[in-house]
Amino acid sequence: VPQSEETRAELSQVAWVPRQIISPQANKPVMGIVQDTLCGIRKFTLRDTFLDWNQVQNILLWVPDWDGTIPIPAILKPKPLWTGKQILSMTIPRGINIHRSPDPKSSNPVFDDGVLIENGELIFGIVEKKTVGASQGGLVHVVFREKGPEVTRQLFTGLQRVVNYWLFHNGFSIGIGDTIADVKTMSFITQTIAERKTKVAEIIDDATHDRLKPKPGMTIRESFESMVERELNLARDQSGQYAQKHLKEDNNVKQMVVAGSKGSFINISQMSVCVGQQSVEGRRIPFGFRHRTLPHFTKDDFSPESRGFVENSYLRG
Prior knowledge:
Elements: H1 5-15, E1 22-23, E2 28-29, H2 35-44, E3 50-51, H3 53-60, E4 82-83, H4 84-89, E5 98-100, E6 115-118, E7 121-124, H5 129-132, H6 139-147, H7 149-170, H8 183-208, H9 220-245, H10 252-259, H11 265-272, E8 276-277, E9 279-280, E10 283-284, E11 309-310
Antiparallel strand pairs: 1-2, 3-4, 5-6, 6-7, 8-11, 9-10
């Protein structure tokens, strides 16, 4: 228990948690929405998320300092429906304005790119890590600068209560089906990996018959390793990019990655496509006991599998 006025003042003005939301080190937030709420807030602000009268009545009870007014429904017929954006806007303080332009390269109105918040109303855009995470110029940063630490604390409370309540009733889970690629993707992956392994076999053959020329500033062995690593990395990257591009939007792993709550596209590639090259100290697995990596490989075997390239995905074992 604080014993003096100085201690009480220090706790309330310096050590108080809401005052630590913005770090003086980089003048940006160190706290943001994470994990469950971050995943849920993206799903909640999608264009096709609607709530009926009963859902809205229940969810409004979780809005901090709710003034009793219900927003006009976005859809009136055949029955009143409210969008997730409307309900989320009730937790954002009035007077907050944010505009993040969509990426001109990949911009498409159908994707609901960019974000526009006018006077605390979310007009368009899907809310994800860039907006509510610990990022400079995001919602947390703007509210802290415009309204202060106490209002920012209320924002955290409101966003998490509303979104977590909705997510609890809406549900979200990841199953084995989210890691299974379709037939077209699998055939492309198999073909790509086979092509790259053929290239590696050609490089090994050139090295064996002294046809391999060293790259500038490298020995023959270093050049050989560099060329093999490049081919194997291309196999992993091309397969992974193709799989990512052809994943459905309702894939639950992809939704988590896009929201920024957990995982990355490399995780998706390794689960669905291929694990890829395993490295030790930045290099392929070196030969150990008697010129081989493991007892079941032959001596001086330079093939991708022998040196740590995992062709299968986690799904395929």
